[in-house]
User: Fold these one by one.
Assistant:
Number 1:
Amino acid sequence: MAVSLIKVIMVLVLPSLVAGHLCLIHPRQRGDMDISRAGSDTCFRHGAPCGGQNASIGSYILLFGGEQTFIKWQQNFNHYTVGYPGYMDIAIAEYGSDSWQLLAFNRDEYVHAQDHQQNYTAIVVLPNKACDHCVIRARYVSHKPGEQPFYQCSDVAVQQTVSALPRVIETNHQPKHEEFRNAMKKMQTLHSKHDTPTFPEKNPPAFLLGFSYSPFDPNSVYLVNTTMDGQVIPLGQFDFGHGMSVQDRCMKTRNMVPNTTYPFLLDSVMTVETSSNDLIGFLHEGNTDNPSPTFLHFDIHQASILFKSAIGEFDGHAFSGIVYNENDGHFYTFSVQRNESKGFNFVVGQLHIEKNMLPYIYSELIRTEPEPLYVNYQWMTMDQKGNRLFVLMGNENTPDQLKARIYIFDLNYVWKFLKMVELDVSEYTFMSIHYYEKTGMLYAMSPGKWNGRLWTLVEINPLTGDVVEHIDVADMEYFKPHYGGSIFNAINQETGDFYHVLTLQDTNANIIVIVNIDGYSITYSEITNLSHVHNLVLIKNNF
Ligand SMILES: *[C@@H]1O[C@H](CO)[C@@H](O)[C@H](O)[C@H]1NC(C)=O
Ligand SMILES: *[C@@H]1O[C@H](CO)[C@@H](O)[C@H](O)[C@H]1NC(C)=O
Ligand SMILES: *[C@@H]1O[C@H](CO)[C@@H](O)[C@H](O)[C@H]1NC(C)=O
Ligand SMILES: *[C@@H]1O[C@H](CO)[C@@H](O)[C@H](O)[C@H]1NC(C)=O
Ligand SMILES: *[C@@H]1O[C@H](CO)[C@@H](O)[C@H](O)[C@H]1NC(C)=O
Ligand SMILES: *[C@@H]1O[C@H](CO)[C@@H](O)[C@H](O)[C@H]1NC(C)=O
């Protein structure tokens, strides 16, 4: 009996068998291509370098060296990995050679449901070198534990051109007037319906810090203060990249070696050490596929790094999340680790200092039994009073229903996994959860189901899994049903203010919304643009 059960689970744990992931549309990929639906097997090809497809016979697609060339591909199924997002890249090599030159690079995006089709385009200048048979390779490396990279290739011939200079790739800086006008009109309506602070605010109870990153300046990130009057104020600059900047940086320097060691700040893993009000993140050096984190403590008053620390006894598994525990002054980490065919173990770890001496030492505290289905890490939040950790995990095999569970871990005396609670996602879906001490409940911003009508602040009972509407925030005509706006420590525990970033329907501009959990009031910021600001954290203003 037990054996057959494991077999059933093993079949379920391999959704990849029915799901497709990346197709190369232009120049057209080898073999069949059907992008009419998500999960097409023609977009599901594993195995370097070409997903097991042999080269085409006969004529190849003609391209010109030294000239702008249009590349288009489709992500046919999304495997965004919170805390360690993957990437897609395009490269070229002579047929039979393994020396791939990087042409384009895109970070993975956080979308609502995995069965999501999104086209990407890039305009690249091909090396101006004749090539009778070259291969353009598209790759999707998702970093999802247990998921291998996806590959597609197309066979091309490159003709050398006589143009002296490669043309510069221009980005389009034209303002989108029509879209912008619509957005402003809607914002005026929203502001007239709700509280509007007078800008600039002299002394707000809290503010949002984040890290601003530009792929056009991949060598540095700025610590920024994003204020309610719509400004993004740089506080300090750091000489490392962000997220997957390793590859962006290789492109910029024309050093086409994707494995060169360049440090970058890890995306989506950040916390506040509330005793000092400072920010904690991780710097990774070296190969993006092989994490080697360094603990970073930012002094936000000086906008500088107070110290860096190696991680002693690191077990080699990327951290998906980190929180600071006010009770013992240690940090708690969460990682998802493959356990052969059985699924994944969830591991709660601790980072602590011994005898006031760096480095931070990692120790494993709790390891769950292998889980085959609820393996998509979403968010972690801490109940400081009860010394409990809540982790939101999504079900890998329900890309539309977004089934989810909360795992509760007890950090008192005897570290243990307490229980797992299935959430009611029949009406509301969400990607992050935040514990509020006053009510003992979790809160989340929800666009309902996909194509819902309303953005709602929902209350989640962590013991029963019940999810109920708490406050209706805005009609969907204003904001996109988009999951990227979560903020670390999003609730100000003193005032009950919940912070979230929404994206306008008509343009990709953003609005910070503050919903008061107790008073039911809603406050909108001015229009701002936070699409380049990552790792947003709420900081209490006790300067
Ligand atoms: C590729 O070619 C090899 C040998 O020529 C053949 O065995 C294999 O079946 C081919 N693969 C595909 C996908 O056509
Ligand atoms: C992607 O582009 C193709 C044409 O190249 C188009 O037929 C398809 O509708 C597009 N899909 C999406 C999701 O935009
Ligand atoms: C961020 O801006 C707010 C004003 O909105 C200000 O009160 C706060 O001190 C600023 N924080 C830092 C670290 O500069
Ligand atoms: C890294 O790049 C160098 C070339 O600069 C190459 O010799 C080496 O094999 C590469 N290492 C890996 C792990 O790909
Ligand atoms: C895999 O899970 C089994 C329990 O089913 C456990 O005994 C074993 O330690 C786990 N392996 C790892 C590497 O965690
Ligand atoms: C926001 O900034 C990004 C680049 O950081 C840019 O691509 C986008 O067009 C901007 N959006 C608006 C509405 O200004």
Number 2:
Amino acid sequence: MVKGVFVDQWNNEYIPNRVDWRPEEGLFRVKPYSVNFPMSQIKERQATMWRYQEALPFETTDNTITMGEGMTPLVPLDADHPNLLMKMDYLMPTGSFKDRGAAVLIAKAKELGVSSVIADSSGNAGTAIAAYSARAGINCHIYAPASTSEKKLAQIEAHGAHIHKIPGSREDTAEAAKQAVEKENLYYASHVYNPFFYEGTKTFAFEVWEQLGEQVPDALILPVGNGTLLLGAYIGVQNLKEAGVINRIPRIIGVQSEACAPIARAFASGEPVSPAENRGTLAEGIAIADPMRGKEILEAVKDTKGTIVTAPEDGIKSAGQELAGKGFYVEPTTAATYAAYQQHKAEIVHPDEKAVMVLCGSGLKK
Ligand SMILES: *Cc1c(COP(=O)(O)O)cnc(C)c1O
């Protein structure tokens, strides 16, 4: 079976190429393919996300762009909370979980013979795409809002990417990137549209499963803006189930900012996801007013019998301080996940249950 074919919402198949970044209607997904987890072989490989090669969309195993990403530590919050485990994705090569997606997406772009890519982001996705493009010898154009801080742009620029500053909102930046993709026929290395990104983020679930002694926890607590980690984790647990190595899936608990919560609102009301207002939040990384994959995210969370909660704005700062007091130095968007857990824990996890929370982004980038 060919790995890495795209499908649209009616399951029409498309062979990925260098220019088509969306079907006539809706968005691309990767068509499910047969996966397996031969543990005795996996255990002999390096401790990176690439050790699950039988579950990744590549026909060959030569990978010259990896920086050893993945297999981040999984440790208890502290000695008093042995059942709440933190998955330390902020220790990735560029400081966030986005490296999982970028490593696979850019390896695929290289396989396709792409010479230039475009992505739009002002933060961690842009940095990850820029870094892996540099390793792959691919030209990288990052579209970012003009208001983006110089410090964030400096990391992207350091990897040799060309920055295009766009006046206006985050949505204006996305629009400008799409126009450039269409006009210049460049490869759209979008973490939102390009489904290869999710083929990378799904390794999050594989690692948690292996690190827990080939078991899944009762719940996964994950931030959700565009849902690139949440949807990846969902695909990952589906893969484990299809391969027959687990027989139940964890509940996925998504965390939004209370200041921008289109998915939480839709989940609570039973209505479809519609654009929300962004009232401004410290948790910038999840403040996505109009998530393109909102419907997919709702379906995934419901399928796992999970829920969506929001982070109280006035709890983010103290949550970050509390995490730092336990040794974890993370960015405010990540502190928001913990703030939401603190506020909602009675509703979302039983004290005897095992839960895994992700720490997505490093505090060193603030
Ligand atoms: C990207 C990012 C998020 C949100 O991910 P989505 O794909 O938008 O759901 C959360 N935290 C950090 C640190 C991120 O970089």
